[in-house]
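[audit] Reproducing an earlier prediction to check determinism. Same input, same settings, fresh worker. If the tokens differ from the archived copy the diff job will pick it up downstream; this log only records the rerun itself.
[audit] input (427 residues):
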Amino acid sequence: MTERDAEGGAAGEPGAHERAPVADLTGELIRVTDDDIRAGMLLRLAYSDRDIVITGIAGTLVIAGVFTQIAPIWQVMVFVAARAAAAWGSHFLAQKVLRIGAEKAVREGYLLGMELWFAFVALTWSCVIFLAPSPLLTEPLSVLAVIAVIAVEGVTVLVASVSKRTIIFVVVAFWSCLTIRASFDNGDARLAFIICIALYHAVLTLHAFNLQRQTVRSVRSEIVNRMLLDRVTQLHSSVRHHRDELEAVNRQLADALVHTTELASYDPLTGVLNRRAFLDRVFHESSSMTQHGRGAALVLIDLDGFKAVNDTYGHAIGDAVLERASAALRAEMRSSDVFARWGGEEFIALLPSTSAAEAVASAERYRASIATVASPLWPDELHVTASFGVAEFGAPTAFDDALAAADRALYRAKADGRNVVRTAPPS
């Protein structure tokens, strides 16, 4: 049997009962029957129900809007009622197929039912052409009505390409109505219009048949792939125990790798990046800044009098001050900012796409946030403040130069009484 013969009988037409078998990885044969393909086509149609209904409503409103200008309102209302009945019937059949399952629906003859219903749907669309006044090709609104009906036919045939029988039903319905209406037309181009309509429907039918064959191939491939997947799943079940053990080991290794990476990249006390990880991020940000021509700002932060905090209140409170201060700083920063503990009580932040003036404003916000850091467990006389040094970073300023400039600005902040923001002059 040829492939064309197989496709011809795939979705409702007489044909061979089984498709040519396909061998899976085990060497066993996979057989796809006509009923399998019919079920697949029916399921596709059912899943498209929502789009079909929405498109139908939109088309009905457009055509009704056109014909209210050229036909009595009661005739337009009859058309709308017929379209509503068609849409409801299509929705009912689609939901029924989804509810009982495509395979059972094929066995119970729902495919033929949907094909016949498509013929009714086509008639509800095509019969509206009889409301158009004569002559069809000279009255502007009549021409618009013909164009609208032909456009709707194209969409309907596209949806109806689940079987050749459905295509024939739809095309014959539209062709008959257009031809009969043209036969009673009193225009001079009546014969030419009838011939053009016949040629158009012949081409449309050939195209729809080709589309239907492609759809059958696609559905058959989906079925074969699903069956192959089922077979592969069965093969995997025989080694599932060993696979699970291997996955458990891999998870442990992955967790260990993540933990090791965190230990290598994050400061264990504050949870922010450490110096090495910060320098790695600066390297990547520098490449991006050079590529896109963007600048940045560097902010160096030093907690004021931190050594005295450790000496006076102990390292436990000193560690708590570092934790709370880093959390306050991190909460004020953008997701794109790179923040790290630079060493001891010093922190550093890289602010991409930020000018020196914007960085100073951000540093002032950080300074105010640091000033709110407190704990009921700390002595009343303990007040946390920080000094800030801001410098521009980006071409032509290298990172080391920007860091040195920020460090000089930080020293100025310390010399000016601490708890202030100072900026380095632009290079």
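[audit] rerun output stored. Observation attached for the diff report: The first strand starts at residue 22 and ends at 23.
[audit] end
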